[in-house]
Amino acid sequence: MSQNWWKLAGMAGVVTAVVFVVSFILFGEPPALDDPAGDIRAYFEDSGSQIQFANWLVALAVALFFLVFASGLRGLLGAADADTRGMWSRASFAGAVAVAAVGGAGSAFWGTATLHTDSLSDDVLVALHQLDALLYQVAMPWGFALFLGAASLVIIRSGVLWAWLGWFGILTAVLQVVGALWPLSGDNEGFLGILGVIGLSLSFLWILIAGVGMMRMESPPAEA
Q1: Does the pLDDT at position 117 exceed 90?
Q2: How many CB atoms lie within 10 A of CB 29?
Q3: Is this structure's pTM higher than 0.85?
Q4: What is the pLDDT of residues 21-39, one digit of tens each?
Q5: pLDDT per residue over 127-169, tens digit each?
């Protein structure tokens, strides 16, 4: 296992992408931020168990797979990023840690809403729903942008993985950053919000492709 650590990390990336996609499908289509409190309450009442299981899957993906993948990717990129003393590879891992932290906080808001749906007032329930949206659709995109953007810079400069994957990661990071502007319009389902959702979906695809690329590597790159 120690001799093929990058393959193990790549496998963790593939599992991360799959579990992330499954969990977000389980969340279903949540109500809009400006929907009546009754509709938001009905969503948590009808999908409470499903949301809790999806939260569990997200925690599983982050704790056991995503951070392992990001750590392995940081080790892989660190050798190719030796001319900057590993600055960009470390920045990428910092972005992954930020994603994990924000995701955990966001899960706590919806988890609270599903556990106490009957006892929470309309105002509190709406606030929890909106806080979750701000974390998942504003704060988390910045973490993903740092994670993907920094890693992609190293990939483009070094060729440790496919160069097109680096450019794809830059595009995905830009979409995440632009999509995080949706609070300016107050509509997370408008044009900017849609860009953010596209960026998040492409982030999962980037992780999947990078994981496959790491699994296909016969040996890690030597230090530059």
Answers
A1: no
A2: 8
A3: yes
A4: 999 888 888 888 888 999 9
A5: 998 898 888 889 999 999 999 999 999 999 988 899 999 999 9
HEC sequence for the chain = CHHHHHHHHHHHHHHHHHHHHHHHHHHCCCCCCCCCHHHHHHHHHHHHHHHHHHHHHHHHHHHHHHHHHHHHHHHHHHHHCHHHCCHHHHHHHHHHHHHHHHHHHHHHHHHHHHHCCCCCCHHHHHHHHHHHHHHHHHHHHHHHHHHHHHHHHHHHHHCCCCHHHHHHHHHHHHHHHHHCCHHHCCCCCCHHHHHHHHHHHHHHHHHHHHHHHHHHCCCCCCCC
Domain ranges for the chain: 2-216
Kindly state the tokens that stand for 142.
């910045």
Where does the pLDDT of residue 80 fall: very low under 50, low under 70, confident under 90, or very high at 90 and above? confident
Burial of 222 (0-12, 13-18, 19+ CB in 10 A): exposed
| Residue linked to tokens 């960009």 | 88
